[in-house]
Each structure stands twice: as structure tokens, then as C-alpha cells.
Amino acid sequence: MRRLVLLLTALAVAVLAAVFAWVGWDQAGRIATVLAGLVAVAALGVAVWAALPGERTPSSGDTAEGEEAAPADRDPAIEQHAEASDQARIYQAGRDQNITER
Q: Which of 15, 33, 70, 88 lies 20 to 30 A from 76 at CA?
């Protein structure tokens, strides 16, 4: 997905560069001003939408292959089974946790 976004961004830049060169640089400045304003309003809308509280559903990367995601109305209990041998250590960190060992 990240490569697709990068490819689409590069394509959009190339198309805009061609359009700007075709219409002339004076007209291109006007088009760029309007386009920048539209993109800024869209970005603001996405930022507000992302900041609003709401029900989040687990993404496809949140579960192991073959496992089903926990229902949104259930308290997701985290369970981990691991074994370490010799001098090995096992760490687990959640999204709002980190491990700092010195």
C-alpha cells in the first residue's frame, strides 16, 4: 500500500508539472494557489476526522494469520505464551508502552 501511495504521488507531481508547463507559468501560479488551498482544506478535514473519538476496528495487521479479531464490544484480553531458554529474554510491549532496559 505504501508503494502505491508513493507511485500515485509521483504520478500526480508529474502530471501537475506537465500541466503547469503547458498552460504557462503565470497561469500555473494561479492554478497552484487554488490547488494548494483545496489540499489544505482536505488535510484539515482528515486531521479533524482522525482526532475525533470513535469506535476503532482492528486492522488486518492486528491479528496473527488464521486468528479472528476480537469483537469491538468485548474487552480484549491479551494472552501471551512464550518460553525462553538459557540467557534469552522475552519482551512484550503494547501500543502505549515501551521497554527500556539498560
A: 88
pTM of the entire predicted model:
0.45
Q: Domains of the chain: which residue ranges?
A: 2-51
DSSP annotation of 74: S
Classify residue 34 by its DSSP letter. Answer: H
Do residues 63 and 57 lie in contact, with contact meaning Cβ atoms separated by under 8 Å? Answer: no
CB distance 70 to 78 below 8 Å: no
Share of the chain above pLDDT 90, in %: 24
Cα 24 from Cα 21, distance rounded (Å): 5
- Per DSSP, the residues of 51-73 read HS-------GGGS-TTPPPPPTT
Name the DSSP class of 23.
H
